[in-house]
Design goal:
It is built from 13 helices and nine strands. By secondary structure, it is an alpha/beta fold. It folds into two domains: 116 residues, Serine Threonine Protein Phosphatase 5, Tetratricopeptide repeat, CATH 1.25.40; 210 residues, Vaccinia Virus protein VP39 (Rossmann fold, 3-Layer(aba) Sandwich), CATH 3.40.50. The chain is globular. Keywords: Methyltransferase, Transferase. This is Macrocin-O-methyltransferase.
Length: 341
C-alpha cells in the first residue's frame, strides 16, 4: 500500500512538471499545480502514518521545487524531519510554513512545543543591551543562530563607527531577520546615506548540486532543496519596518547568477558582505561577482561554511585559485568571518 502511495505521488509530480512545461507560469497553471500539491500533501500524510518518513521527506522536497506555497506542505516536512531525529531542521520548516500560513494552528502548536523543549544555549549579553533588544525583534524572521547574528551586529556597528567606507550587502535573505538587524544598525549608527542591498529569490533556494552535502548526505536527503528556505518579499519589508529601518534597504529579487552581474556596478565598494547562499554554486556566484568590490579591511561573513560542504568547497576553491591568504575566524562551528587584506 505504501509503495502504491509513493507511485501515486510520483505520478502527480510528473503531471505537475508536464503542466508547467506546457502552460508555463500562467495563473491557471499555477492553480492546477497547487491542486496537485494539495493532493500530494494528503498522500504524504498517509506515508507518515505508515512510518515512511524518509520517503515522505523526499517527495515533499520534490514538491517544494515547484516554488508554490501550499498549506501544510512544510508542516509535513517538519513532521518527517522530527521522525528522522532532525528537530532543529523541523523548527525551521515550521517557521517556513507559518510565513505563508500564519493561522495554521497545528504548525503553531508544534513549533511552540519544540521551542519549549529546545535548549536555549549560552546567553550572549551585550553591554549596551542594544543587541538583545534588536535580537528579540528579528529572531522570528531568521534561521541564523544567535552567535552569528551577534557577529553581524558587531561587524556592522564597527564599520559604521570606524570604517571602511562602502555599502552593506547580504546575499541570501530568507525571511529578512539578518537584513533587518543590519538595517537597524545603519539607522542607529551609520550615515543617512548608508545602504544595504538584500539579494534573494524570495521564493526559496535554487536546486542544490552534487557538492551540496552535510555529513556526506545530499541536501535533498537531509530535507533541504530547491524551494526551501522560502519567504515572500513582504517578510523582509515587515522585518525592517518593525525596526523603522526599511528606507535603508534595497531588495533585489532573483537568482544570484542573474542579479549580481547586473547590480555590481550599482553597488560599488562593499564594506560588509554577508554570504548566506547555502550551496556551492551560489557561494561561487557571490565571490566571483562581489569579492573584488569588497574594500581592504572590509568584513566578509559566511553563514554556512561549517555546515554545507559545497559552501566550504566553493570558498576554498575561489581563494586558492586567486592565491588569497585567508585568515578565517570561527563563530559557532557553522559561520566564519574574515577581513579582506
Amino acid at each position: 500500500m505504501s509503495r502504491e502511495i509513493v507511485h501515486n505521488v510520483d505520478r502527480l509530480l510528473v503531471a505537475g512538471r508536464r503542466l508547467l512545461s506546457v502552460a508555463g507560469e500562467s495563473k491557471e497553471a499555477r492553480k492546477s499545480i497547487c491542486g496537485l500539491l494539495n493532493d500530494i500533501c494528503g498522500h504524504c500524510q498517509e506515508l507518515l502514518q505508515t512510518g515512511m518518513a524518509r520517503e515522505c521527506l523526499q517527495l515533499v522536497i520534490k514538491a517544494k521545487a515547484f516554488r508554490l506555497p501550499v498549506q501544510n506542505l512544510d508542516l509535513i516536512r517538519a513532521m518527517a524531519l522530527l521522525l528522522l531525529g532532525q528537530a532543529p531542521s523541523a523548527v525551521e520548516a515550521l517557521k517556513e510554513e507559518l510565513r505563508y500560513f500564519p493561522d495554521n494552528a497545528s504548525a503553531n502548536a508544534l513549533l511552540m512545543e519544540l521551542t519549549q523543549m529546545a535548549s536555549s544555549g549560552p546567553c550572549i549579553v551585550d553591554g549596551s543591551g542594544e543587541f538583545e533588544e534588536l535580537h528579540a525583534v528579528v529572531k522570528p524572521y531568521t534561521m541564523v543562530g544567535e552567535q552569528r547574528l551577534r557577529a553581524i551586529y558587531t561587524h556592522a556597528k564597527r564599520v559604521c563607527r570606524e570604517g571602511p567606507e562602502g555599502v552593506f550587502v547580504e546575499c541570501g535573505v530568507a525571511a529578512g531577520g539578518s537584513s533587518a538587524l543590519i538595517a537597524a544598525v545603519l539607522k542607529r549608527h551609520g550615515k543617512s546615506t548608508a545602504r544595504l542591498f538584500s539579494f534573494d529569490t524570495f521564493d526559496g533556494l535554487p536546486s542544490p548540486g552534487l557538492e551540496d552535502r552535510h555529513g556526506g548526505m545530499h541536501a535533498e536527503e537531509a530535507g533541504w532543496g530547491g524551494g526551501t528556505c522560502a519567504a515572500p518579499l513582504e517578510s523582509l519589508l515587515s522585518a525592517t519596518s518593525s525596526l523603522g529601518a526599511a528606507e535603508f534597504v534595497t531588495p533585489v529579487q532573483g537568482f544570484f547568477e542573474d542579479t549580481l552581474p547586473r547590480m555590481r556596478g550599482v553597488i560599488g565598494p562593499i564594506a560588509f558582505l554577508h554570504m548566506d547562499g547555502d550551496w556551492y554554486k551560489s557561494t561561487l556566484d557571490i565571490l566571483t561577482n562581489l569579492y573584488d568590490q569588497v574594500v581592504p579591511g572590509g568584513y566578509v561573513q559566511v553563514d554556512d561554511y561549517g555546515y554545507w560542504e559545497g559552501c566550504r568547497k566553493a570558498l576554498h576553491e575561489f581563494t586558492s585559485g586567486r592565491c588569497i591568504d585567508l585568515a578565517l575566524h570561527s563563530i559557532d562551528g557553522i559561520g566564519v568571518w574574515f577581513t579582506k587584506r
